[in-house]
């Protein structure tokens, strides 16, 4: 009798332990903070691709990330490395040493639009995004503007390359950049009708190839999307800026 009791007791103990461990592992899978850190690593490293929206459970963490300072810290670390690299380059002084910078969420910010879209948890709203762009009031990403000015000061030519459509958004984009202090770049290149419907990677690769064909040397290539930095003629070094709010292929 005694052995049976102790056997049953042991069994109960084991079952309870099992349930406890299982519950803990489910809890940890559902833990938003841990999940969001893993998710952010996966998207920023280009392991996870073509994600349509930010997972709902990440919302409070992405909001805190974007508004609470860590986004800025992450940006600043990349830009500090860009600066170190830039200072190490020996220029040829033939006007052919260039950097290529993306526009949206690299030079100027769409955070205000994304704040209204739950930091990317809501699906992309083509109409609302276009009207936001047409306001021409995307604010400069300040640390990037400072870097842009240093590039020009050191004698690099800066090419701004964006997937925005030239016909519809060309003049407002040029004006927005100017008003935010982006003055002195060599070229602003937008997506002409020739590249309509092409992926950002294909379009940007083709443009970079053309630029190299003109004899320019791409020393640095900066963007918040992997599609700014992959493909062909990507440049001597690429720099990925943080952006956990949307994915462009
Ligand atoms: C988050 O991860 C840490 C480290 O693995 C772990 O100790 C903690 O229990 C996790 N949080 C939750 C609520 O699961």
Structural class: alpha/beta
Query: Shape from CA axes?
Result: elongated
Strand content: 5-15%
Number of domains: 2
Ligand kinds: 2-acetamido-2-deoxy-beta-D-glucopyranose
| Overall pLDDT metric | 94
Main sheet characteristics:
5 strands, parallel
Any idea of the CATH topology of the largest domain?
A: Rossmann fold
Tell me roughly what share of residues is in helical segments: 40-55%
Family: Belongs to the APS1/VSP family.
Keywords: Glycoprotein, Signal
Signal peptide: 1-17
Pfam families: Acid_phosphat_B
Give keywords.
249 residues, alpha/beta
Provide the fold topology:
Elements lengths: L1 H29 L1 H13 L14 H9 L2 H19 L8 E5 L9 H5 L10 H9 L7 H13 L2 E9 H14 L7 E5 L8 H14 L3 E7 L13 E4 L9
Parallel strand pairs: 1-2, 1-4, 2-3, 4-5
Keywords: Glycoprotein, Signal
InterPro entries: Acid_phosphat_B-like, Acid_phosphatase_pln, APS1/VSP, HAD-like_sf, HAD_sf
Protein name: Acid phosphatase 1-like
Describe the overall structure:
The protein has 249 residues and is an alpha/beta fold. It has 2 domains: 1-48; 58-240, 3-Layer(aba) Sandwich (Rossmann fold), CATH 3.40.50. Helices cover 50% and strands 12% of the residues. Strands 3-2-1-4-5 form a 5-stranded parallel beta sheet, with helices on both faces. Helix 8 (166-179) links the parallel strand 2 and strand 3. Helix 4 packs parallel to helix 7. The longest helix is centred in the first third of the chain and has 29 residues, at 2-30. Bound molecules: 2-acetamido-2-deoxy-beta-D-glucopyranose (NAG).
Short note summarizing the structure:
50% of the residues lie in helices and 12% in strands. The chain is built from 9 helices and 5 strands; from the N terminus they run H-H-H-H-E-H-H-H-E-H-E-H-E-E. A 5-stranded parallel β-sheet has the order 3-2-1-4-5, sandwiched between helices.
């Amino acid at each position: 009798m005694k052995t049976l009791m102790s056997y049953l007791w042991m069994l109960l103990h084991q079952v309870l332990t099992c349930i406890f461990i299982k519950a803990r592992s489910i809890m940890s899978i559902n833990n938003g903070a841990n999940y969001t850190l893993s998710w952010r690593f996966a998207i920023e490293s280009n392991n996870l691709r073509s994600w349509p929206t930010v997972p709902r459970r990440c919302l409070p963490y992405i909001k805190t990330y974007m508004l609470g300072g860590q986004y800025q810290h992450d940006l600043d670390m990349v830009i500090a490395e860009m600066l170190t690299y830039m200072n190490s380059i020996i220029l040829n002084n033939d006007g052919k040493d260039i950097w290529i910078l993306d526009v949206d969420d690299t030079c100027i910010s769409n955070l205000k639009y994304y704040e209204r879209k739950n930091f990317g948890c809501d699906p992309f709203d083509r109409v609302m995004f276009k009207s936001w762009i047409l306001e021409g009031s995307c604010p400069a990403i300040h640390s990037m503007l400072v870097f842009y000015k240093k590039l020009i000061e050191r004698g690099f030519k800066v090419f701004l390359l964006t997937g925005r459509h030239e016909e519809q958004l060309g003049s407002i984009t040029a004006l927005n950049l100017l008003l935010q202090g982006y003055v002195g770049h060599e070229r602003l290149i937008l997506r002409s009708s020739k590249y309509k419907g092409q992926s950002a990677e294909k379009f940007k690769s083709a443009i970079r190839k053309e630029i190299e064909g003109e004899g320019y040397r791409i020393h640095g290539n900066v963007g918040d999307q992997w599609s700014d930095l992959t493909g062909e003629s990507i440049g001597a070094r690429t720099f990925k800026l943080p952006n956990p709010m949307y994915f462009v292929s």
